[in-house]
Amino acid sequence: MNLSDSRAAGHGIRRVGAMEAVLETLRDAIERGEYSVGDKLPAEAGLSKEFEVSRSVVREALRALQALGLTASKTGKGTFVVSNRPVENPVFGHYSARDLLEARRHVEVPAAGYAARRHASDHLDTLTELVERMEQETDNTAWVALDSLFHITIAQASGNPVFAKVIEEIRDALARQSTLLNQLGDRRPASNVEHRLLLEAIGGRDEIAAAEAMTHHLTHVESTLSNIVGAAATAVPAADENGDS
Fold first, then answer.
1. Which residues pair with 92 in a beta bridge?
2. What is the mean pLDDT of residues 158-178?
3. H helix intervals, the chain
4. Which of 100, 172, 96, 181 shows the shortest CA–CA distance to 140?
5. pLDDT per residue over 177-225, tens digit each?
6. Where is the HTH gntR-type domain (predicted)?
7. For strand 91-92 and strand 95-96, is the pairing parallel, antiparallel, or unpaired?
């Protein structure tokens, strides 16, 4: 199957993000059965050539497919289709979405409250700069990196090194999840607003408002992720549920 056909053109690789276009085309092919469970996807080099994008773009698309539970990577063998539907609990690196959300609610919510009470001026300056840069940033990869630094800085501003250590530990998983949310859920505009509210609460030393702002932020992360998984699942034709072609 040539993935550079009209379906790929219909996604407008040059009009929208290249990674998103590659991801959507491959996911569509899997969900429609053009790649069946057990099939091996073309190698990165082959997909890169067919889509006329860099291998790093293809690699990010393949990671997103794996996070959704549609594919699995086998070392030295390639990427294989394992399901034509996304899983309810996507995996990002070593941690599932459920793992991350449960941990973040117990760490980042109180950390935001403590940050409002204990932050130093340097912390507030850093958070302000990060929020302003995120609001102006157009590159998704750069935005995700700034997002990670924002959450780490809040944990550091809490004055509790355990909180900071936990967020550092899950940093890569959070970045992968954030990338997926931005790619498929267009989370960046809403996240920018939520980050600004967090900054204002912390800057105002309002412990309750800061905790509430972080709770609000995490609730919307969960909601967006649920919508992504649910929308992708319902896109599969009903006949596929019984294995019909």
1. 95
2. 95
3. 6-10, 18-31, 44-51, 55-67, 97-118, 121-136, 140-157, 161-169, 171-185, 188-203, 207-234
4. 181
5. 998 898 788 899 999 999 999 999 999 999 999 999 999 999 999 999 9
6. 16-84
7. antiparallel
Pick the CATH number of 18-81 from 1.20.1090.10, 3.30.450.80, 1.10.8.60, 1.10.10.10: 1.10.10.10
Tokens 């294995």 appear where?
243
pTM metric for this prediction: 0.76
Cα 73 from Cα 66, distance rounded (Å): 8
Tell me the one-letter amino acid at 158: S
CA gap 129, 131 in Å, rounded: 6
Those residues with Cβ within 8 angstroms of residue 238's Cβ, 6 or more apart along the chain or in another chain = none
Q: Sketch the domain layout of the chain as residue ranges.
A: 18-81, 91-232
Tokens of 214: 């972080």
User: How is residue 56 written in tokens?
Assistant: 């790093």
